[in-house]
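dumping this here before i forget
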Amino acid sequence: MENTIDIPQQKTLTRKDFESDQMVRWCPGCGDYAILSAMTNALPQMGIPRENFVFVSGIGCASRFPYYLNTYGFHTIHGRGPAIATGVKLANPELSVWEIQGDGDALAIGGNHFIHALRRNIDINIVLFNNEIYGLTKGQYSPTSPQGLVTKSTPYGSIERPFHAAELVIGAQGTFYARTVDANPKLMTDIFVQAVKHTGTSLVEVLQNCVIFNDGAHAAVTEKATRDDNQIVLKHGQPMLFGKDNSKGIRLNGLKLEVVTLGENGITEQDILVHDAENDDPTLHLMLVRMAPPHFPMALGVIRKVKAITYEQALKAEREKISAKSQYHSVDDLLKSGEVWEIK
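structure:
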């Protein structure tokens, strides 16, 4: 009689498997709820064991994220999330590491950690909650607040020009950048799944609404009455069409982008730019991320996705190269090298 061994089948994970037992504590109507919902929908689709996920956060409203997922997680210190996430990934490259930051956490005190994680191309995923305000500390202006914004710390309006996260990604030689809005959880879920498939640092910027301190910051892009004309969802290999019934498009006119309407002045779909997220040259990607209402639609979707060696791959190759040439292969070898004597 032949002996057989029953190998248990791996359980198919669902959204419920990733929901924690913690009470979710954000202000009613906060966009963070939509981001959490999209993430719990996306995680089962990634095909990764639940115990291999790690979520890291800093300080701010967004930093509560690890508590609300039934995965491993670290709630760390202000702005230092990317450093902790880097350490986690280098210690165990098999883990899927997600780093959660608000715009203040990432681009103010955490600015250097943020850009150097992108530059090094560590295989982690950063989700940037951008509500253009400091929410947890009750409504001060942030590095992404627009000029003129009146807040508790800028009672006469902010005089500073804001950071644009997408430009920082490209300037830091980032390999993956996507943008979405909290009002479109389906798109957000899809982007999270695409981000985890990318080898290298992925940055997903979520335009998120703070109903208490900066309500309507992204209304031009998200409101039903204006969104058709003020947002364009880019897809690799497809023409850049938008508007009601896809009646408008983006065309390259010389060295500038312009909005055109199909059927006017002989414009056809053949005149419309085809999105190439995988072009290593960032010139067009930079032009796309700078588009904004009222003259252009806001570009959403995966805008840049290129290949480059990761920090972990480079580190492993360096270790192997050094080890192959070294006469010492352990600490014991080193201690017994050179002059050695024994005291009796």
